[in-house]
Amino acid sequence: MLSAISANRFSLGSFWVDPATYDIVRISMEAEEIPPNLPVLASVTSIDYARTNLGGTDFLLPQSADSRLLKFPGAWICRPASA
Questions:
Q1: Per-residue pLDDT tens digits for 17-33
Q2: Which pairs with CB-CB distance under 8 Å and at least 24 residues apart come from 25-28?
Q3: Helices marked H in 17-82 — which ranges?
């Protein structure tokens, strides 16, 4: 599995790629520089992808996603979703 890391002003992210097909397998992002006036200490999101056959054609589609917020003073709020 190939992976890479990317950053911009507000988030740090990684993606994983299948080396045989070059399909994106997962994208993961973590918030950075969250303004101190927000009641959020951390935010992490990941999306998993897989090929899905629709009408005889394969498409690369999201298969599952997970989003988590760490609210002040420390309670995790999880929002997992599956396709």
A1: 999 999 999 999 999 88
A2: 25/1, 25/49, 25/50
A3: none
SS3 82: strand
Measured distance CA(43)–CA(11) in Å, rounded: 9
Contact between 57 and 74 under an 8 Å Cβ cutoff? The reply is no
Q: Which residue, chain included where needed, has tokens 């988590």?
A: 68
| C-beta separation of 42 from 28 below 8 A | no
Separation between Cα atoms, residue 46 and residue 81, nearest integer Å: 10
Number of domains into which the chain is organized: 1
Q: Which domain holds residue 19?
A: 2-82
Could you say which DSSP state residue 78 is in? E
For the record, the structure tokens of 47 come out as 């999306």
39-54 residue pLDDT tens: 888 899 999 999 999 9
